[in-house]
Amino acid sequence: MRCFNLPDLAAPERNLASVKTLLRVLIGLVICGAYAQAGNEQFELSPEQRDAAFSAQDAAREAQAWSTQALERNTSDALSQLAADADLIFRGRVESQSFEYDSAGTPFTRTEFVLADVVKGERSAAQFTLLQEGGPSQSGDGRVLLVSNSRHFAVGEEELLFVELHPAEFRADRRAAVQHRFRIYQERLYTEDGQGVILSQAHERGQRRLELSADRHPAPRFSRIQIGEHTLTKRFQPEKPARRAAALASGEHKKPRRSYRDSVDVATFARALQPGRDE
Q1: What average pLDDT does the segment 201-213 reach?
Q2: Structure letter (DSSP) for residue 73
Q3: How far apart are CA 80 and CA 274, in angstroms?
Q4: What is the CA radius of gyration of the chain?
Q5: Measured between alpha carbons, how far apart are the two ends of the chain, in Å?
Q6: Which pTM was predicted?
Q7: Which of 41, 70, 174, 186 is most solvent-facing, going by the fewest CB within 10 Å?
């Protein structure tokens, strides 16, 4: 970079030539910068062009720049992740439910499960107890406390639960938390709202893919919540016209819409959760 001494303003005649020279240099720098910017904009690739030109060899060279070994990037396996995050995975039937209250009158729901199969974890007992905050009011005035992270079960129904355990917690209702819940109906798996849980065929790297059906099973159990003597009914909104129009515009309507009738059976799903077992 060139540095210029500012002229002495007290002697304008003597420094007039220096002022003219300085102005010419500054104007020249501005013009050169403008040409340089215009040139860069003219020959610079767009983001789409850069993405299209980025090859597998470029990706390998990029990886080599950060490490001495290029590692292959694998997509996450949803089933393996589900199983890894849970401390206990079991299939169980709801045997009974009862309600208890603390000193402030806050209701808690105690649910007893009879275990039919333990997919992950060690259980010496054939039962599992889940205590959750929420339930009918102690005063019997018809009020019900609903807690967002509590699940609602019905006696006699079967569940496949992924549970996180915290045995050292002081509060009993925090010692076990349901991470994921799959409802079992006629030996097949569904979400809490009745969407079918679909397990795709094995694809590259031996991974499996989970999908949910576009429709819901019409059985009343998927739209009904029973809390003591109170029965709550869920209403599901139909697909919005704007969303359907967007699907038509994007070509999504050409993809097959899976039905709840394609939901996976419990035994196949349990085997897929356990590496090393035959499917």
Answers
A1: 73
A2: P
A3: 8
A4: 33
A5: 71
A6: 0.68
A7: 41
